[in-house]
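During the reporting period the student researcher (J.K.) took over the structure-prediction task from the postdoctoral fellow and processed the backlog of single-chain submissions. One of the processed entries is reproduced below for the supervisory committee.
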Amino acid sequence: MDSVKEGDKVELVCELKLEDGTVFFKNEKDKPLVFIVGQGKFFPAIEKELINMKQGETKTVTLEPKNAFGVYKKNLIAEIHKKNISSTAELNIGSSIQMKTESDKIIGGMITDIKDDKITVDFNHPLANKNITVTVTMMSIEKN
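J.K. obtained the following structure tokens:
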């Protein structure tokens, strides 16, 4: 039976859990994740773990924050003047907000504080600083 090599197209079923067991992503066999191994479309640390897996095989790996959604960075918290917000939506603590960077990239954050004419926005990924347990089952392998 063939095993996965870099460049192979794979279909897999995947479940992502937090340390407390909370499942925050799970796909089903009829909707597999499909990608070419080694192109960096999935967590690179998991793509490496797929190498040599065989069809039908299941593997569980725990990713540290640096290999998952990143470590929490205090420099990704910003105080923004309300006048610089173009959104007409109501601003509430816990609300998501999207902002355009100077390079025209759209980034998302969560409002963590509101004071008079300023809001505080945390642009860290909501799962930053979390260990993630990833269970993958190899459904099919299409050789490169």
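The committee noted the following: The longest helix spans residues 44-50.
J.K. will present the remaining backlog at the next meeting.
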